[in-house]
Each structure stands twice: as C-alpha cells, then as structure tokens.
Amino acid sequence: MRGVRKSLIVCLTAGAVIAAAVCALNVCRGYGWSRSVCDGLFLASVMLLGPGIIRAVSNRGAFDVAGYGLRTVMELVLPLMKREEKEDIHQYRERREAQRKSPAGLLLSGAIYFFLSLAALAVYELSGPGGFP
C-alpha cells in the first residue's frame, strides 16, 4: 500500500505539472481560462493513463514472448549482453514477474485527471462560446 501511495503522489504531481504547462501555453495563445484548464487536465490524464494501461497489459505477460525473443537476438548480435547461464522462456517470465511494478498509481491518477477534465469541460460548455476571460 505504501508503494501505491507514493506512486499516486508522484503521478498526481507530474499530472499537475503537465496540466499547468498546457494551461499556461494555451492562455498565452489567447484561449480562455476554462478551455485551457480543460485541455491541460485532459492531456495530463492521457499522459498518465497511456503508460498505466501499457504497464497493466505488460504485467499480465503480453510482451514476455516478444521481450524474450528480442533479448535472444540481442545476445546473438552483441555477445557482451550474454548472461552467464542460458535462460529459457519460463525462467525469463519468472525473472520478469519479480521485477514488475503496480500500475495502480498511474491508472488512479489518470482517472482522477480524466474526471476533473470532464468537470472542466462541463464548465467550459456551460460558460458559453467565449468562456471565462
């Protein structure tokens, strides 16, 4: 639980930085505040949900065979990358299983920013075509 909490705080902070940067860029370009906030929050949600979904799929083992194949080819091409003992696919999967990280922080923070962007979109749509100044 402690690792998920730390990951959530880091991801929320990264999302806030992304949202603030996009909002500042849009305001400098002359867009309204409500649109700028909506765009910033949505981009933060996409930037967090995308890697979170990829990590969740990877944790289920979707890329294990491709990773093992790429590792084997790299060992043939670059002999310096060879491991001491030959590793089969089952050993590779067990080793990767021990290295996997939880996608909970990325997915939860991305979902939070997505729902905040929906709320900002509602404010933008209700404020009329000009938005807030």
Structure summarized in a few sentences:
With 133 residues, the chain is mostly helical. The protein is built from 5 helices and no strands.
User: What is the overall silhouette?
Assistant: elongated
Assign a percent range to the helix content: over 70%
Main beta sheet: none
Beta strands, count: 0
Compute the gyration radius: what is it? 21 Å
Number of helices: 5
**Classification by helices and strands:** mainly alpha
Order of helices and strands: HHHHH
- Uncertain segments are none
Structure description:
It is a single chain. The protein is mainly α. The protein starts with a helix and ends in a 7-residue tail after the last helix.
Any key phrases for this structure?
133 residues; mainly alpha; 5 helices; 77% helix; elongated
Topology:
Blueprint: H1 2-28, H2 33-59, H3 64-77, H4 89-99, H5 104-126
Helix pairs in contact: 1-2, 1-5, 2-5
